Amino acid sequence: NAGVTQTPKFQVLKTGQSMTLQCAQDMNHNSMYWYRQDPGMGLRLIYYSASEGTTDKGEVPNGYNVSRLNKREFSLRLESAAPSQTSVYFCASSGKFAGTFIQETQYFGPGTRLLVL
Amino acid sequence: QQQVKQSPQSLIVQKGGIPIINCAYENTAFDYFPWYQQFPGKGPALLIAIRPDVSEKKEGRFTISFNKSAKQFSLHIMDSQPGDSATYFCAASRAGGGNKLTFGTGTQLKVEL
Questions:
Q1: Which residues of chain A are within 8 Å of residue B44 when distances are taken between CB atoms?
Q2: Alpha-carbon span A80 to A65, nearest angstrom
Q3: Burial level of B107, CB count in 10 A (0-12/13-18/19+)?
Q4: Band (B95; pLDDT cuts 50, 70, 90)
Q5: Which residue has the higher pLDDT, A41 or B112?
Q6: How wide is the angle at C-alpha B51 spanned by C-alphas B46 and B54, nearest 5°?
Q7: Contact check, Cβ <8 Å, B100/A45
Q8: Left if phi > 0, otherwise alpha if psi is -120 to 50, otherwise beta: which for A23?
Q9: How many Cα atoms are found within 13 Å in the side-chain-facing hemisphere of A34?
Q10: Residues from chain B contacting residue A104 (CB–CB below 8 Å)
Q11: Residue A98: per-residue pLDDT
């Protein structure tokens, strides 16, 4: 049971290049999320997917696209990377089970560190 | 617009001390308030959470105090240990909001021997 996995762990891009960050979860969770973490700004939601087949914008969606490939996988794409997208990206998932807080608890992956030159 | 304000930005305490991290929120529709702990190079992990129908929740050495009228909540770490050195984030979400968490900016805690 790996939980939430993310690939790659680290990536360097040049301005204008594109890339896709991959995320997968093996907890049979319905909801998945993409966050970015920047110093002094906490974690900010980029996109989320409440269930398979649905996606919606979060707080900072500009410059990103997402795909909920199936229940397990949720990818984040940067079509034309910019230096402002240098950040640490976290994927998370949450379930929908009965019980206090179980459905709200978000489980995070280890993160992808992205540097855009 | 920052809906969850967290302070202090950093905190240094001696082993055995009681660090306190504070958060204030604006949206009265928030009804779930978790704290996440993050170690360097790792993703955040849920530490403890509270709903506004109680004023305090305790799990081991970690306690959340909640003041609904003031729209504030805080994390207390009793008998702090060097292993508690990490970054702590408060967060909030509302029912019907798709479980979207709004995070505070984080507090970097260092517990010294």
A1: 43, 90, 108
A2: 11
A3: buried
A4: confident
A5: B112
A6: 125
A7: yes
A8: beta
A9: 31
A10: 32, 34, 49, 93, 99
A11: 42
Q: What is the DSSP letter of B81?
A: -
Dist. CA B102–CA A59, nearest whole Å: 9
b/e map of A77-116 (b: 16 or more CB within 10 Å)? ebeebeeebbbbbbbbbbbeeeeeeebbbbbbbbbbbbeb
Q: Which residue's entry shows tokens 């500009």?
A: A62
B89 and A90 within 8 Å at the Cβ level: the answer is no
Confidence of residue A36 (pLDDT cuts 50, 70, 90): very high
CA pseudo-torsion sign A9, A113, A82, A34: positive
Judged by phi (left if over 0) then psi (alpha if -120 to 50, else beta), residue B97 lies in alpha
Strand A56-57 with A4-7, pairing: unpaired
Q: How far is CA B66 from CA A49, B45, B70, B84, in A?
A: 30, 21, 9, 22
Write a three-state SS string for B33-52: EEEEEECCCCCCEEEEEECC
So what's the pLDDT on residue A103? Answer: 61
